[in-house]
Amino acid sequence: MSTEVRQMFSSIAPRYDVANEVLSFGVHRLWRRTAVKLSQAKEGSHVLDCATGTGDLALAFKRKVGTTGRVVGTDFCPEMLESAPAKAAKAGLEVEFQVQDAMALTLPDNSFDVASISFGIRNVDDPVKCLQEMARVVRPGGRVVVLEFGQPTGPYGVLFRFYSKTVMPTVGGLLTGNRAAFQYLPRTAAAFPAGERFLSLMDQAGAYSERAAHPLLFGTAYVYVGTVR
């Protein structure tokens, strides 16, 4: 799956930010701020953001940790990273960007206070291995933060599924030229474990002393937080 996902993101990378802003109605900004808050990152913290894409969450963390902190943004798709350095420079923020596989990070053990991944863990071949690898590079007592889609229920869930299956592929296809990518993204989000089921994946990783799920917008997304053993 990794090769197919990499190729898909490569094709939509130039228009990804525009599509994300339009399709989420800007709510992704609030979700990122929530993830940063729940991470308990502070001035001087060292943060790793996996599957950073064009760098939005990495930049949000850099604003939090300040000039004395360090933020590294990684992604396995070089094309997604292409615009990230310029975006950071325009914002006056110093962030390191590297091409890395979140399941096989070439980074030292215990070298970060926080590791995060937003809307990326459902695209890796082995989510449990990814959770283990992120925990490996975080010091004991540090936090791993996962922002990922859920499956809302009730009347809102019906509306959300209609939007995901019908509107997203049409609008996303028009904006990026790749309708299939915006069929894949909601399809994988609908199938990926959410809530308690994702917490069971964190348990399987065997790397966390505590873990919690924080629902956003009626369960449209979750912020999962794990404390590293």
Automatic annotation (TrEMBL):
One Pfam family, short name: Ubie_methyltran
InterPro entries given in the database record: SAM-dependent_MTases_sf, UbiE/COQ5_MeTrFase, UbiE/COQ5_MeTrFase_CS
Superkingdom field: Bacteria
Keywords: Menaquinone biosynthesis, Methyltransferase, S-adenosyl-L-methionine, Transferase
Residues binding S-adenosyl-L-methionine: T54, D75, D101, A102, S118
Pathway of action: Quinol/quinone metabolism; menaquinone biosynthesis; menaquinol from 1,4-dihydroxy-2-naphthoate: step 2/2
GO terms for MF: demethylmenaquinone methyltransferase activity
Reactions catalysed according to its record: a 2-demethylmenaquinol + S-adenosyl-L-methionine = a menaquinol + S-adenosyl-L-homocysteine + H(+)
GO process annotations (BP): menaquinone biosynthetic process; methylation; ubiquinone biosynthetic process
Enzyme Commission code: 2.1.1.163
Root EC class: transferase
HAMAP family: MenG_UbiE_methyltr (MF_01813)
Protein task: Methyltransferase required for the conversion of demethylmenaquinol (DMKH2) to menaquinol (MKH2).
Family per similarity comment: Belongs to the class I-like SAM-binding methyltransferase superfamily. MenG/UbiE family.
Name of this protein: Demethylmenaquinone methyltransferase
